[in-house]
Design goal:
Layout: E1 3-6, H1 12-15, E2 20-22, E3 26-30, E4 38-42, E5 48-54, E6 59-65, H2 73-89, E7 100-105, E8 114-119, E9 122-127, H3 130-134, H4 136-147, E10 153-156, E11 173-177, E12 182-186, E13 189-193, H5 208-217, E14 222-226, H6 232-239, E15 244-249, H7 252-265, E16 272-276, H8 279-284, E17 292-295, H9 307-324, E18 329-335, H10 342-356, E19 360-366, E20 385-391
Parallel strand pairs: 1-4, 9-10, 14-15, 14-17, 15-16, 17-18
Antiparallel strand pairs: 1-3, 2-6, 4-5, 5-6, 7-8, 8-9, 10-11, 12-13, 18-20, 19-20
């Protein structure tokens, strides 16, 4: 049996159901404690506390269960079925208008290290821990068992998501079935999914609700969508009645995808243009051109040790956005950095606004949608933060 024993008093967070055990909390270990192996956790009185996956680094164990149970095929089936039930209850699944959603959201679904996005029959999986990666065949089988005929393919896209210290060198590929790139539906709008070459699992599903909110503000406005990737905010703005939409991304490949997605929904619509250009350079030449600006950059900070640099990056970006937007304009601004708390993000945007001297009001505070749930015992899971600002 693989076993670790915690130091005195270090079991307190376990009784609060936090899903991580840090290396400094461990007194000693027994058995084969290689990264990825299943381990049982005990306190100093030899009382069972939890079972999880071993990991190298400051997070030494990712907890799978606080019940004394076996991690087998039935375990995976039960957890996946529970996650699917949640998605059914929030009515995110509607084949007529929405066939895209997040099925498994790591700690939010009590499966730390596992992400599964569903795209109209294709489950795109990302493993963020070695333990989950080693269970990939069983997880794939459980997905098919639970979802039945709804799953036509399972694609593993974990080449860039496993911890860099791990000795594993994963290769992206199909765990079950196969599929070509295809068109999916989100709130009745079409988009191409590129899970082979695209970022993340192929699309940023977590902005679905925020895109819908932007649609309500877009009528008769000139809209700038910075860091547009595949153009999600752009075609929502067009459906909302925007008079002009400009999509900007430094990646030529992203601009190509944005063009395709806009064409799917609004063929030959002259309201839309896209530019492969660096963000700050484009913003420098955007004074008083736009009524609504979207600032949705990639994560500026993935680790605590680069947080200060990230704060400066968000501050610079938001200051420039607030400076250039038209009077009476709207800004949708976001951070997807987990280490950037919502309080710190709001403070950073406040500082940026103060440096411009313009009057700014917060109209909405945004987060990730319900199919990206946050485990109440793991507040770190609330990674997406956003503000809608009104700028006089």
């Amino acid at each position: 049996m693989n076993k670790i024993i915690l130091k005195p008093g270090k079991d307190k967070s376990m009784f609060r159901y936090h899903p991580w055990i840090f290396s400094g909390a461990i007194a000693k270990g027994e058995g084969d404690l290689q990264e990825g192996n299943v381990v049982r956790v005990y306190n100093t009185e030899d009382k069972y506390i939890a079972t999880g996956h071993c990991q190298i680094g400051s997070i030494a164990v990712r907890i799978l269960t606080f019940e004394d149970e076996t991690i087998d095929l039935d375990f995976w089936r039960n957890r996946i079925a529970n996650a699917y039930k949640v998605r059914q209850s929030i009515e995110v699944i509607n084949e007529g208008t929405n066939n895209v959603y997040r099925l498994i959201h790591g700690e939010g679904d009590n499966l730390p290290g596992l992400i599964v996005d569903y795209y109209a029959g294709v489950a795109v999986v990302q493993f963020h821990s070695v333990g989950m990666y080693l269970e990939r065949e069983m997880i794939a089988k459980a997905l098919v068992d639970v979802m039945g005929g709804q799953i036509t393919a399972i694609y593993d896209k974990s080449e860039t998501t496993l911890p860099y210290k791990s000795a594993i060198e994963p290769k992206n590929g199909y765990l079950y079935g196969s599929a070509d790139s295809f068109i999916a539906l989100e709130n009745g709008l079409k988009f191409n999914v590129d899970w082979l070459e695209g970022q993340k699992t192929g699309f940023f599903i977590d902005q679905r609700d925020n895109r819908s909110l932007l649609e309500k503000y877009a009528k008769d406005k000139s809209v700038l969508n910075m860091f547009c990737y595949t153009g999600g905010f752009s075609f929502y703005a067009m459906r909302g009645g925007a008079k002009l939409v400009h999509s900007v991304d430094v990646s030529a490949r992203a601009i190509e995808l944005a063009h395709k997605n806009v064409e799917l929904n609004f063929p030959s619509d002259s309201r839309h243009e896209a530019f492969a250009e660096e963000a700050f350079k484009f913003l420098e030449n955007s004074h008083d051109k736009y009524d609504l600006i979207v600032l949705d950059p990639p994560a500026f900070a993935k680790h605590q040790n680069v947080l200060n640099n990230a704060i400066q990056g968000y501050k610079k970006l938001n200051r420039k956005g607030i400076e250039v937007v038209k009077s009476g304009g709207i800004i949708f601004t976001f951070s997807c950095s987990q280490v950037m708390t919502k309080e710190l993000f709001r403070k950073t945007v406040f500082t940026a606004a103060a440096n411009t001297g313009r009057k700014v009001r917060i109209l909405h505070q945004m987060t990730q949608p319900a199919d990206h749930p946050t485990n109440i015992y793991h507040p770190e899971g609330e990674y997406l933060k956003g503000l809608v600002l009104y700028v006089e």
